[in-house]
Design a protein that fits this description.
The complex is a heterodimer of chains A (233) and B (316).
Chain A lengths: L1 H19 L2 E10 L14 H4 L12 E3 L3 E3 L2 E6 L12 E5 L4 E2 L2 E5 L4 E5 L5 E5 L9 E3 L6 E3 L5 E6 L7 E7 L4 E3 L5 E7 L2 E9 L3 E9 L4 E3 L2 E4 L4
Parallel strand pairs in A: 1-18, 1-19, 5-8, 7-13
Antiparallel strand pairs in A: 1-15, 2-3, 4-14, 4-16, 5-6, 8-11, 9-10, 9-12, 12-13, 16-17
Chain B lengths: L3 H27 L18 E4 L2 E4 L4 H12 L38 H10 L14 H11 L5 H4 L16 H13 L3 H4 L41 H10 L15 H14 L6 H10 L12 H4 L12
Antiparallel strand pairs in B: 1-2
Helix pairs in contact in B: 3-4, 6-9, 8-9
The chains are: A mainly beta (233), B mainly alpha (316).
């Protein structure tokens, strides 16, 4: 009985301290060198989409901001995260709008529900080119219900629509909820990290991955920055 | 002296030939019935089974036949990197990812044993995969089991449930024209072209999942013997677009087409095969005297000629 009480107290203390002494990792993702210029997309073959864009949109494989900031980089705790395997109950949504994927990079947990919506007046086919997970390819004409699915293995998956070859997005299927996608200013934030040693991974679809180790000792904020070498093509 | 030279040459040649023959015999004597080279010798064939009707295939029994018939293209490791692969387009199937084109099951699921069995028998039209129906049913069943040794998916997953194909309704003009409306609405023409000739606006951009260029199916090619990749019956066409052709740009329409609509689409697709005699084309001929896609293009009598006097692939 006493052992149980002690255990209970201890675990309560542990949980409490984890909440009390949660650290944060903030940082910025930048590039060096000269990245390829985004290419304008010609949607004239799909007028219903073309008219949704006042100015032609450009490719989104590499999106940069001021001061060499790199947007759309997935930064996540690749090892050491305490909540690996806790699948968020809510679904993530991947929208097809104006013959573009919104968001361009969608992060989800393994086994988290993924909802794919077609907001366009044209048929799309959703073809995620998974290699580790099972590959499938489905048609989604306008006005049809969302496609709901999930991925059971962590993987970065390129998504394309074969009907509209310019459409290109990315699924980042992770085993952690500690992730962020870098903003227009290149910044990211990973809050609520209990004390421990972590490996952070930053992934950019064209430039690959980078890792960094960080140790959180208490209620503190650490800074970790990532710099990718830009590819000129 | 000069005369001796040819003699000496012949003598050397004979000695050489005898040596070679001895060497070859000694090597061959050690070899099993079928020459086995490379990694397969070391490859322990995992036991896998296939069940087709009352036939049970087992992977061990297919080792020789795989070596003899399949390895040249599909490779020692079943990864589609056989020695002929570089010359082939489309590329040989990579069994290690267990993605298959011709299935009766939904997209993303494993095909049934029967699906693979039929594919081996049928071959894949417009590719280098020939017809293998000269192999016995048992041999083909064994090969189906053998294919499964290459991917762990066969251990973890069950084959998908085959889709149900409801009985085919009669071919009518309404059915065909409704099918045509679906062909437009579902944007099949974006790849397959307005007349199904594989020349839609996106056709030139298509790549398969290995990033190799791939052509959409051209319905208009071929005569009475024209086949689809996954079979030649109306039921087969129904399955192709409902299940999708996995590993290619062709998606599954199973979630978006109702069974009756699907049959209408099948009926319309048949009429795109303008040189093939079919009940669908007969209905159109009876109604219009011509097959509609060519009303504007061709003088009236030409397309009215029955398809059976045309050579396969022949134009007007």
């Amino acid at each position: 009985m006493r052992t149980r009480q002690t255990l209970l107290t201890l675990s309560t203390l542990l949980v409490f301290s984890a909440v009390m002494f949660a650290g944060t990792v903030n940082g910025k993702v930048t590039y060096t060198g000269t990245p390829a210029k985004p290419k304008p997309i010609d949607m004239s073959k799909e007028p219903s989409c073309a008219k949704q864009h006042a100015t032609p949109i450009t490719t989104e494989s590499v999106v940069t901001g001021p001061d060499n900031a790199l947007e759309n980089v997935v930064v996540y705790v690749s090892s050491g995260a305490p909540d690996d395997g806790q699948v968020p109950p809510q679904a993530v949504t991947f929208d097809q709008k104006g013959c573009q994927y919104v968001p361009h990079v969608l992060v989800m947990h393994t086994d988290q529900e993924l909802k794919i919506v077609n907001d366009d007046q044209t048929s799309h086919n959703i073809h995620p080119l998974s290699k580790v997970n099972v590959e499938w390819n489905k048609s989604q004409p306008p006005g049809t219900p969302p496609i709901t699915t999930k991925y059971d293995k962590p993987e970065f998956i390129s998504v394309k629509c074969n009907i509209h070859p310019w459409m290109h997005g990315e699924f980042a299927v992770l085993k952690t909820n500690h992730f962020d996608v870098s903003k227009g200013s290149g910044t990211f934030s990973l809050p609520n990290l209990p004390p421990g040693k972590y490996t952070l991974t930053a992934w950019q679809e064209d430039y690959g991955v980078q890792t960094a180790d960080v140790t959180i000792t208490g209620n503190e904020t650490k800074e970790v920055n990532f710099t990718f070498k830009a590819k000129a093509y | 002296m000069n005369r001796l030279k040819p003699m000496r040459f012949i003598a050397t040649a004979i000695v050489g030939a005898v040596f070679c023959a001895t060497f070859a015999t000694s090597v061959l004597a050690q070899a099993p019935d079928v020459p086995q080279v490379g990694p397969l010798q070391k490859l322990q064939v995992k036991h896998m089974e296939s069940h087709i009707g009352n036939i049970t295939g087992s992977s061990e029994n297919a080792k020789t036949n795989y070596r003899r018939y399949c390895v040249g293209c599909h490779g020692d490791y079943g990864d589609g990197n056989g020695e002929n692969a570089v010359w082939l387009d489309p590329k040989p199937r990579d069994f290690t990812i267990a993605t298959f084109k011709c299935r009766s099951t939904l997209t993303g699921t494993l095909p049934t044993d029967e699906d693979l069995f039929n594919t081996i028998a049928r071959g894949l039209t417009n590719s280098n995969m020939p017809i293998w129906n000269h192999l016995s049913k048992q041999e083909r069943a064994d090969l189906v089991a053998y294919i499964k040794i290459f991917s762990p998916r066969w251990d973890k997953e069950k084959a998908g449930t085959p889709i149900t194909v409801p009985p085919e309704p009669p071919v009518t003009l309404e059915s065909i024209s409704h099918g045509e409306a679906l062909f437009t609405k579902l944007e099949c023409w974006k790849c397959h072209g307005p007349h199904g000739e594989g020349d839609g606006p996106s056709a030139s951009t298509l790549t398969d999942s290995q990033n190799n260029p791939i052509r959409p199916y051209n319905f208009a090619l071929g005569g009475n013997d024209s086949r689809f990749k996954c079979g030649s019956t109306n039921q087969d066409i129904y399955k192709i677009f409902m299940t999708g052709v996995d590993g290619t740009p062709m998606p599954s329409f199973a979630d978006v087409i109702q069974p009756n609509d699907a049959w209408d689409l099948v009926h319309f697709l048949r009429t795109l095969q303008i040189h093939r005699k079919s009940k669908e084309n007969d209905v159109l001929m009876a109604a219009h005297g011509v097959i509609p896609p060519y009303v504007d293009k061709t003088p009236a009598p030409a397309p009215a000629a029955p398809a059976d006097n045309k050579s396969p692939g022949g134009g007007q």
